[in-house]
Structures are given as C-alpha cells and as structure tokens.
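Entry: Aminopeptidase
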Amino acid sequence: MIDFSQLLRPDRGEQARTITLVDPAAHEEWLAAQPNAVRDAAEMHRFSAKDGTHLLVPSPGSDPWRVVAGVKDRTSPWALAKLAQSLPPGLYRIAGDSPPALGWLLAQYRFERYRRSDDAEPRVLLTGDAAGIDETVRQAEAVARVRDLVNTAAADLGPAELEAETEALAQAFGASTAVTRGDTLASDYPMIHAVGQAALPARSPRLIELEWGDPTAPRVAIVGKGVCFDTGGLDIKPSSAMRLMKKDMGGAAHALGLARLIMGAKLPVRLHLLIPAVENAVSAASFRPGDVLKTRKGLTVENTNTDAEGRLILGDALTKAAEGSPALILDFATLTGAARVALGPDLPATFANDEALAAELLAAGAAVEDPLWRLPLWDGYDDMLKSDVADMVNAPEGGMAGAITAALFLRRFVPEGVAWAHLDTFAWRQAAKPGRPKGGDALGLRAAWALLTRRYGAAMQALPPPPVALPRG
C-alpha cells in the first residue's frame, strides 16, 4: 500500500511550487489583480476557475511557474483531489489556508496487485497544519485498505485471507483474536456454518473476532459481512449478477477499516470486531431452499432463498456481539440489491433502532461528505418475515421492501435497549470521480468514524451538533 505519510508532510520551508486556489465566483476579481503575463495565460487557455480546473502561470519567485486552480468549496475533503491527479510530480504548498488534504492523498491511490501503474511518481503536499497530518493519513490508509480488499480477486481472498488480515491488524495494534471454525462453528454459529459448508474443506467458514482496548471503556461492536464470493448458492445468480461478487465481503472490509481507525487513534473504547467469513458456493453440501436453520439465538429460520445468505451469517454474529452488552453495535454489509435500486450506488441505506444514533450518524456523514440515507425499520413489514414452519423466513416472497425486510430480519438478533445501526453499503464505485477511482471503495466508513470520534474522542469536536431527530426515510 502507498505510504501516504510521504505525500502529506509538514511545511519546513522547502522549495515547492505554490498553488493558488480561486473561487469561480471571484475569478474576475482575481484576474484583474494579476500581472499581464498571468492575464494573457488565463485568456489563452480560457481559464475561468471552474471547479477542478487548473492553469500553470509564470511565477515571480525562483520557480518559473506556479499553479492556479479553481475550487468551488475549500472545505470539501475532495477539493484537492483533481489537482493531485493532474499536476506533474513534485512538491507543492497551498497559498493561504489549505483545504482538507484527504482527497490529495486518495487521488494517488493505485491498486497494483495485478498490474503496475504507469503513474507512480508522487505529488507531495506541504502543510502548515502539522497537527492534522496523522488523522488525515489514518483515514486515507483505512479507505485505501478497504479498496484493496474489495478489489482483490476472490481466488486470492477467501475466509482464510480475511482471518490473516485480521491477525495482521491485531499484531500491529496489540489486539487479541479468536477464530471459531469446524464442529464448534456448526454447533455455536449454525447459520454461518450452513451458508459456508458448501465450500468445505478448501475455503472453510469461520467467525473471526478481534478485541482491543481497556475492558472498562464503553464497548463498541463492529460487525462486517464477509461473504468472500457469492454464487447465490442453489438459487444461483446469473453470470451478470455474479461478475462483481468478489466485493460481497465489502462489509468485512469496512469493519476492518473502521477497526484500524479506532486502534490507530487510540479511541477510548473496548473494541469488539466480528467478521463471519464464508464463501456461498455450490456443491452437494449446499444448504437448500426450504431448509430450516438453527441460530445461535435459538430462533429457527426457514431458508426461502440461498442468495439471501448475508443476513443469515450476520444474524449469528450480531447475537454474539450482543452477548458482550455493548454500548453500540454497527454493522456493515453489501446486503441487498434493493438498497441500490432505491438509493443508487453512492448512498448506503442506513437503519437504526435508536433515534439519537440515527440523527448523529446521518449528521456526521453529511459533515465529512460521506453521505448516508436513512430507511425505516418499518414495523408494518415485520409480518413479511412470517413462516409456516419456523420462527421466520430469511427472504419474503415478492421482493417488495427488500432492504427494509433484510434490516428487520437483522433486528431480530439485536436485544432491545442496545443501540444498533446497519449500513447496507455498495462498497463499489461504478464511475470514477476525483480521488475516487472506479472499483472498490469505502462508502459509510468515514461517516461511522466521525460518529465514533464525536462520541468518544476529540478529533471531530468541530462537527456541527446533530438535530434532535431526523424524519424516517
């Protein structure tokens, strides 16, 4: 992974090219104050300070040229992303107050496991805000790791590799891990075992756990769906729907990214990370439509669709998370196509059983430009989960309100009184934006981190206070 700490450094007066940021609305005023050579260059290139554009102009200093860039919103984390993608390699500094530098770093992300990039030379930003460097670098590292994991082909990332990723993270931050597999998994986490049993023995299912922090601190449980590849099981997907199913462990990637942020910042919480890791494969051992599954909680589930497997493994993991009496549970999952139909790829569908938590989470996402959109845990749809032979079904017939009924299914495994939020995220970017290339991406990660730092740390105290309540949907 790229060393982001080398791309954002304290400004110690080194020779560097200056970047002047110009608001498009103030372009004419700025232009009028420039010398003739600059005005001529702007006219020649038809530079109007449009957001995301830049111009190289003569410099009065020792360097023969400097950069003028149009930036509409200097407070956006993506304000500098386009520049970092398009400027020549070298050292730069911003004239005046610098915008957030996250986009500068993430614009230089490259996924190079299978192909080397032609553009490997760095663009380094020197900043006077030395105090903010560590936090910006931590966020960039967490997002980049999510991208790396989601972009990795399923042949190279199965349950064992997710376990290895968790172990490496634990070693880096002095955390402890526990892994449940085999007969113990079958008896203690029967839904995780049922979903993953078709991939035995090569890619055996498991529940991966990590614990870190002061045991007396508030306990925060982070759960991530780790379906390393999803064929759909016996309700097999068509090839077009299976094409991107390497990303069905995107929830686990987000959970690992958030755990990395929590431990890297030494947030005063007791972290409990849980990743149910499986491959939903097809074999003679596949679980079947019509099978009635046991659960860790003691409920029974009639399996009506083997392609609705993510909620099954999350159900057992949520039950385990709740046994620790956490102050908060957050889960991430690439759970439903229905969420994408409703909200598209950019907005994780967000559900919460606590109004204050929902308000704070959405406000945090808006403040850091990692937007979420709330959908309701609509009690009127709970009857859709009724089964004739078991306590409930995993996927109601008809397909209506698919994201909501999936969240209602998960709610059955969260005890009353435990604050819980569920993020149904896409974990993928279909079209590139500055700083956000096509491919795996973290959607909802920074929003969750902003929530946690607001609650338990000082890093995000500048965020505006959330409203008392937000309307459902």
